[in-house]
Specification:
Elements: H1 3-12, H2 26-32, H3 34-40, H4 48-57, H5 63-75, H6 77-90, H7 100-109, H8 118-130, H9 134-147, H10 151-159, H11 162-165, H12 167-181, H13 192-212, H14 219-222, H15 228-248, H16 255-271, H17 283-297, H18 303-314, H19 325-351, H20 361-376, H21 381-400, H22 412-417
Helix pairs in contact: 2-17, 5-6, 5-13, 8-16, 8-21, 9-15, 9-19, 12-13, 12-21, 15-16, 15-17
Amino acid sequence: MDLDTLLDQAQALPEPGIPARHGRHIERARRIGKRFSRVLGKNIEPDAAEWTRLGQSLMRGDEPMDRLVAWMSTAGIGQGRALFERVLEHGIEAVPDAPGPLKAFFARYDCAPDWVDVRLLERGAQLARMCGNIGAYVLRDGALMGGYQAPGFNKVLVMTGALNKGPAKRLAETSEWWLACTEANALSRFGDGFKITMRVRLIHGLVRRHVATTADWDVAEDGIPLNQLDMAATQLAFGPAFLIGARAMGMIFTRADGGAIMHLIRYAGYLMGIEEDLLPETEKEGSRMLYQMLLSVVGEPDKDGRTLATALADEPLGRQYRLFQGLRRRIERERNLSVNVFFLGLPGMRNLGLPRRYVPWFPLMAMPYYAARSIVTRFAPNRFAASGRRAQREWLRTLTGAAKHSVGGAAAKIVEAV
């Protein structure tokens, strides 16, 4: 079965064409999302129209990229990717006789949409650098670990080799993408953030096409692999989920700060192939949408989710430290588990089969430090952005040592098989 056949099956489902997993465990999801409701207050539940639209987004992939990948599969993946890389690096002028599908794709993204504000992009990127390694705790121990409670996410991860490659490599690849997107001028047409995002998007398109050919994928149950809702929920982890989590750990963000980070995430998501309707403008809108997406995707924890969670919990035991390596590995594992219980609570820890830890000692100890740091950074933002980025680079180094991280490299075998 190919992707086109899968899309035809999606269209053939009973109206409104929503896969069975959409909201199947909504009450469990509401319990998990209670902390969102406490932050956002009233009126965060989706109405009937919103709920239907979210369900239908599980049936849509990334149409512009899927068309490009379909052309590549006909012309030859190797040749198609080589031309893609040449245009990505040097512009469409570098390929005088560029095929129509390649020209059509890049014509959409060579110029930013009118709503993009470069000043906000730069401020959002600076704030991400200023935050230092708090993002590693919020995104790793809150968003990523919590995401393993969504079986639909886990299924694609497992089918693309996540159980074999190990969590350190996946963390390193995602971190490389995020660091590239948050450098100065990163999302300009020839910025490193723009280029790495387009490469990730191409990998997603190739993986989507590959997974569609497997007998294990059931569109009526799971929707389209790497669909719009799953991609948008992942993207929003770097926006509203990060802001809520960082504030919970003591960071102080103004409304303008939140708006700048959301603007950065919105444009990065647009470049990643997410539809604009699923890319909210404000932090409040984003938090509400993320909560509603959780209602759709959270399910009963499965074996794969517990396996992925255990591997992530044990990942610090393989870190590369310069001094006192054995001791620091054990301390870092306990530190991460304390952040896990802070964000997931004891029920979440139990659902994922994680070791029981009752006291979130690191977030409680770190709150005064992060609060003070976020105030001091206002007086020397450039200095703290530079020191924060050095800390982030050092954290990345501990994951896999000096190894180079090729974004999408973990899915190389999948891509070669397309």
